[in-house]
Amino acid sequence: MKIENKAIQMAITGILVGSLMIAGCGKETAANVPAQSEPPQVGVVKIVPHKVSITTELAGRTSAYLIAEVRPQVGGILQKRLFTEGSNVKAGQVLYQIDPATYQAAFDSARAALDKAQANVMPAQLKAERYKELVGIRAVSQQDYDNAYAALKQAQADVAVSKAAVETARIQLDYTHVTAPISGRIGKSSVTIGALVTASQSASLATIQQLDPVYVDVTQSNVEALRLKRDLADGKIRRDVASQAKVKLVLEDGTLYPLEGILKFSDVTVDQNTGSVTLRMVFPNPNHMLLPGMFVRTILEEGVVDGAILAPERGVSRDPAGNAVAMVVGADNKVESRILKVSRTIGDNWLVTEGLNSGDRLILEGTQKTPVGTLVKPVFMDDKTSAATASIDGRKAAVQE
Which residue, 170, 197, 223, 284, is most buried by CB atoms nearer than 10 A? Predict the structure, then answer.
């Protein structure tokens, strides 16, 4: 009986050992068979043409639209100052009162001289009329009539001279009221009551500046101006000639000025020292937020590029020769290398002129492990090429969907 049980145990043990051997051989066989690998994934974006508004960013300073220095046109002692420093004044408003006593006396004297001259006209006129009748009947000589007529003309001329003297005296008297030549904001007064002023003195009494609108003067490189003209002539950039170029303004603290301006004119002379031209822009300033002398940055609209090809910067590298290079997924899902021609950056994108076409799949992620010719699986990422506004080497551009 013991012998039978032992035999059974040995049989069971043999069966278990055989099963384990068979399982081990199966694992070894599975391990020796290579697994089929999938193509590596790469992150791509699809190149889509955009309508891009090209702008240039230029630095400049603000200046008043109109500036008038207030000076007296007659001499005398200042009796009154009739404005508040820093306030707004209207054209024709009286700012200073000069002592009018001597000018009032001169005016009165001129009027009296006019009255005297007018009184002398009457007897001369009557005498000339009588002599005219008498000379007809030869009661007086022709010479007597000529003398009477000449005396009349002299008396009339004296009246004209006296009238001019009265007008001159009146103007001088009016000039004792120093008025504002333009409307605007007046600065501090350089004189006080009791000061002696002289006609057309070199020092101004005060300065008035019109601050709505204001000028913004900037300088642009002549090279950039020539490039823009060439691109416009070649049709690379399109400009709406029906309207003036619009300009935006960035203040010193980095905030955007809420109102748009326009390009007024471009200077016709190139500065020989800097090789630049001056551009003048006009901005509305109803709240007087812009003050003369402020440093600002202007964003000038150059034109529009239709069908622009934009490539994210992280998808473009440089080869040893300095050429811009991009990796794309070809039609057979294999990695291809493209040499690009780029003109400028637009935000975090390059504006590509050659090397990429609409519909190309540009690789943004995974290029390190996927050399040229590698079969890959493209995975589309968010298209970052539709940035609203971006800086371009001192220029800016806006992409319009």
Answer: 197
Q: Are 172 and 74 in contact (CB under 8 A)?
A: yes
Q: Give yes or no: residues 319 and 393 share one domain.
A: yes
Q: What is the pLDDT of residue 2?
A: 44
217 and 231 together in one domain: yes
Token digits of residue 213? 């609108």
- pTM assigned to the model: 0.61
Instruction: State how far the alpha carbon of 394 is from the alpha carbons of 186, 259, 301, in Å.
Output: 37, 22, 13
Tokens of 239: 């400009």
Q: Are residues 86 and 183 in the same domain?
A: yes
User: 257, 285, 302: which is the final residue of a domain?
Assistant: 302
Q: Cα 239 to chain center, whole Å?
A: 17
Segment 269-322, tens digit of pLDDT: 787 788 788 888 899 999 889 999 999 998 887 767 777 888 888 888 888 888
Shortest CA distance to 356 belongs to which of 292, 307, 401? 307
pLDDT for 70 beyond 70: yes
For residues 374 and 40, the answer to whether their CB atoms sit within 8 Å is: yes
Helix axes 142-174, 101-136, angle to 10 degrees: 160
Residue 37 lies in a domain: no
Q: State how far the Cα of 74 lies from the Cα of 92, in Å rounded to an integer.
A: 17
Q: How many CB atoms lie within 10 A of CB 158?
A: 18
Domain membership of residue 110 as a residue range:
101-174
